[in-house]
Amino acid sequence: MEQGQFKYIRNEDGKVSRVIRIGTRKSELARIQTASVADKLKELYPDIILEIVAMSTTGDKILDTALSKIGEKSLFTKELETALEKNMVDLVVHSLKDLPTTLPVGFTIAAVLKRENPHDAVVLHPKHAGKTLESLPVNSVIGTSSLRRAAQLKKRFPHLEFKDIRGNLNTRLKKLDEKEDFVAIILAAAGLKRMGWENRISQILEPEDCMYAVGQGALAVEIRASDADILEMLSVLNDGDTVLRCIAERAFLRHLEGGCSVPVAVHTEVKDSQLYLTGAVFSLDGSESLKDTMQTSIPVNDKCQEEVDEKVQRVGVTAIKVGSESQANAERLGVDLATLLLSKGAKEILTVARQLNDAR
Ligand code: DPM
């Protein structure tokens, strides 16, 4: 039964309930991520009725081009946002790192869930089991299309070669195992874990080797910014520390004017009521880099946005149950660190990186 703009159904007892429709990409990882959020919602709200709507996005269709070569920023999100806009779905689950730091008008991230391990991981060809990046033979070819990963690892492990690899996680693992093109591939530990492939991780890359991407390892739920009911319903999914870390990271990236395809990396930590942000930018071969760390305080007894009049979006996030002063501090931290790196020449490094990448 369609009633107004939302979808409703009549239960057996005659009660009418709104159906909450969740949009997802069709890849296995996207479906797993969506199902995990759906399960959490079912647990928190046993009476809700959920429906999952799967669709393909541009990013899923263009499989032969490196992500960083495709100009479109909202590669994996556009079709899903259109579905949100048309009320065909009510929420969409994304990997936060695939969401642009500026969302199109009318959308917001209502929840950022507790972050998985945000680090990158090495997956080896079975032939090389037991090795590490350090101990792999000279000129071993490593598969990654991430400028961020390639830049850092080229610098750190000059004996290795890096080549693009595209496709969803299933495709990449197949390309690694069934051919001889790559000795190893680099993937986010979080994605591997969600796919149930943790046993393929042979090495977790520490910040000294490779810092992670903005938002990596965190799931985000995007909604229509005007949908107050869903915003309220999802607010309990937020993990306070993850929200603050990711706001700082996203503010850093946004202020650098980086997209998802620039060699920018971060590391964040919450400790003793302090939020620490380390951010870095790299030239494509990693030979040039700028890196710094700053910190800010997380006030105790901080008031939630719920209690203040205006609901503020911070780099796309509206987390109404997380302290509002803390969120403001986190955003400022990201901007301040970006400002510092820009004053040291970050813009020039990123501009050259972009030009060289476009010319590849
Ligand atoms: C973005 C990048 C990659 C994805 C760039 C980067 C990796 C591309 C590649 C912005 N999105 O990380 O520097 O390796 O060629 C992506 C993955 C996940 C979300 C897969 C992965 C799962 C992990 C998560 C693709 N987006 O990074 O291994 O939820 O953070």
3D architecture notes:
- With 360 residues, the chain is an alpha/beta fold.
- 31% of the residues lie in helices and 24% in strands.
- The radius of gyration is 21 Å and the shape is globular.
- Bound molecules: ligand DPM.
- Residues 67, 95, 97-98, 144-146, 148-149, 187-188, 190-191, 213, 216-217, 260 line the site of ligand DPM.
Element layout with pairings:
Elements: E1 2-3, E2 6-10, E3 16-25, H1 28-44, E4 49-55, H2 58-61, H3 78-85, E5 91-95, E6 107-112, E7 120-124, E8 141-143, H4 147-156, E9 161-163, H5 169-178, E10 184-188, H6 189-194, E11 201-204, E12 219-224, H7 228-234, H8 240-255, E13 264-271, E14 274-282, E15 289-297, H9 324-343, H10 346-359
Parallel strand pairs: 3-4, 3-5, 8-9, 8-10
Antiparallel strand pairs: 1-2, 2-3, 5-12, 6-12, 7-10, 7-11, 13-14, 14-15
Helix pairs in contact: 8-9
Describe the structure in brief.
The chain has 2 domains: 2-117 and 214-359, 2-Layer Sandwich (Double Stranded RNA Binding Domain); 120-205, D-Maltodextrin-Binding Protein, domain 2 (3-Layer(aba) Sandwich). It is 31% helix and 24% strand.
Q: Any key phrases for this structure?
A:
alpha/beta; Double Stranded RNA Binding Domain; D-Maltodextrin-Binding Protein, domain 2; seven-stranded mixed beta sheet; five-stranded mixed beta sheet; 10 helices; globular; binds ligand DPM
Helix content: 25-40%
How many beta-strand runs?
A: 15
Q: How much beta, percentage-wise? A: 15-25%
Which radius of gyration do the C-alpha atoms yield?
Answer: 21 Å
**Structure ligands:** ligand DPM
Q: What would you give as the CATH superfamily of the largest domain?
A: Porphobilinogen deaminase, C-terminal domain
Helix-strand category = alpha/beta
- What's the number of domains? 2
